Amino acid sequence: MNDRKCRFCQTPLYQTFVDLGLSPVSNAFVKPENVNQGNRFYPLHAFVCEQCLLVQLEQFESPEDIFSQDYVYFSSFSESWLKHAQTYVEMVIDRYNIGKSSKVVEIACNDGYLLQYFIDKNISVLGIEPASSVADEAQNKGIPVVRSFFGTELAKELVNRSPKADLLIGNNVLAHVPDINDFVRGLKFLLNERGVITMEFPHLLRLMQGNQFDTIYHEHFSYFSFLTVQTIFSRFGLSLFDVEELPTHGASLRIYAKHAEDESKPISAAVEKLLTLEYEEGLHRMETYQTFSDKVVKTKRQILDLLIRLKNEGKSIVGYGAPAKGNTLLNYCGVGRDFFDYVVDKSPHKQGMLLPGTLIPVYAPDHITETKPDIVVIMPWNIKEEIVQQMGYIDEWNGQFVVFIPEPRVLLS
Question: Cross-referenced InterPro entries, in alphabetical order (predicted)?
Fold first, then answer.
């Protein structure tokens, strides 16, 4: 008997979006001394709700387990992401007249990668972050942090002791929330009557168009179209009045929300434009979602074909970057140390660890200069230009870069 239900509308879930088999939690890196303990594997099977069309995973690990004190994702190790954050701060301050009398709150503030730029302008901020490892780093930057998961209960506690938020920010957090109703209800409660919410998250339409199946992992409970997120926010009295398409994370949306009763902010033409695009692309029809799985299976075969060919030619292969998306892909394709000698990552919190599931060792980037591999596979393909620029010296030994998404290919120098 099926007891799976949509986390938004409670409709029973039957329809598969894509089944990526069994996979460990993508950021559950393994310490070498614990190698014999390995990882726990869970189904990585995404469903689409036939009622509200929310694409979602079942919950196997709690957020408390996933975002533990040993959480290893630090936002500040990507230069392009820091630039993105700084550009956003300049824009939003100017657009909404955010100043010294304003209150800015960021949910899932990570290591303070964004709020630090408000601090530089003497604007009052508050970060909310449950993972101790990154919260410590944010506090070291002078950012006050509430170490908790966000929801309606926390929103009420915050309102009882401080002003509501004039600007409420959530970057790449909406997908991480198992109880989406409680989360959005909390947003409504914490927002000042003329305040603005901005949320960024990967765009489901672009995920499908770009074959970005590797962005599906257990930390991401939900995958949003603009159609669906508009429905969710509307249920709780929040209106989406503007939207931007962003290049980050392979193509994201930044939505702007207000209280539905706030008439001071007109609905942008971008809202209707994006809704029209999603209808034209068929995101309102179940059949559109049913074709994605076939594309993913085909890509898996192509990835394995390329790796087998390269290994048969005697090539040494390593990976650059140890992101969550890379761990999804490697585990789904069954790629381990029989193909990759190692991966490197700029984050010292990942160096010296083993990748979840595949147990491929992680080194610092300078290990590449020591071993001079023939092939460097860029796992965070969304910042491949940044990595190619940083690692251009592999030309010295005729090294080549490879990416797997949207299809596996060798990048031309």
Answer: Methyltransf_Zn-bd_dom_put, Methyltransf_Zn-bd_dom_put_sf, MeTrfase_14, SAM-dependent_MTases_sf
Q: Copy the structure tokens of residue 64.
A: 């408390």
pLDDT in tens, 136-189: 999 999 999 999 999 999 999 999 999 999 999 999 999 999 999 999 999 999
- HSE at residue 33, side-chain half, CA atoms within 13 A, is 0
Mean pLDDT taken over the chain: 93
Entry pTM = 0.91
Burial 41-56, CB ≥16 within 10 A → b, else e: ebebbbbbbeebbbbb
pLDDT tens readout for residues 255-285 = 999 999 999 999 999 999 999 999 999 999 9
Contact residues for 34 (Cβ-Cβ < 8 A; gap 6+)? none
Among residues 250, 274, 289, which one ends one of the domains?
Answer: 289
Q: Are 373 and 268 members of one domain?
A: no
CB 147 within 8 Å of CB 127: no
> What kind and span of H or E run contains 20?
strand 15-24
CATH value at residue 310: 3.40.50.720
Same-domain pairing of 95 and 146: yes
Contacts of 392 (CB under 8 A, 6+ apart): none
Q: Is cis: bond before 178, omega within 30 of 0?
A: no
Q: What is the DSSP string of 127-169?
A: EE---HHHHHHHHHTT--EE-S--SHHHHHHHHHHSPPEEEEE
Supply the DSSP symbol for 265.
Answer: S
